[in-house]
Design brief:
Strand content: 5-15%
Distance between the termini: 25 Å
Number of helices: 4
Shape: globular
Number of strands: 3
CATH architecture: Orthogonal Bundle
Low-confidence stretches: none
Largest sheet: 3 strands, antiparallel
Mean pLDDT: 87
Order of helices and strands: HHEHEEH
């Protein structure tokens, strides 16, 4: 799977905001939950969705939702098993971007 052009732009913005490491942890959690549960509703720890600025949180939410995951205000997520491939592509892209930027 490939990322959409809008997601690529959000990745670059995430790099500028220096939030890629936190996004990697969050997206990894979603990928692991999806791999185990094949979709559905699950929760993540609140700190994973807490960013120092609202803009950073919104950026992350939009990018993750483009992969087929709906994030709720309480930190829970809803997704289908079809979201696994786009979410895995996002995870790999975040990881590569992080490695290349260091």
């Amino acid at each position: 799977a490939e990322l959409m052009e809008d997601q690529l732009l959000l990745l670059l913005e995430s790099l500028d905001e220096k939030i890629v490491p936190q996004q990697i942890i969050l997206v990894r959690k979603y990928v692991l939950c999806l791999a185990q549960n094949e979709g559905g509703h699950f929760s993540v720890e609140a700190p994973l969705l807490s960013f120092s600025r609202e803009k950073e949180r919104e950026l992350t939410v939009v990018m993750v939702e483009m992969s087929g995951v709906t994030l709720e205000k309480d930190g829970s997520a809803v997704c289908t098993k079809e979201a696994f491939t786009p979410l895995a592509a996002l995870y790999v892209s975040l990881h590569v971007l992080d490695l290349l930027s260091n």
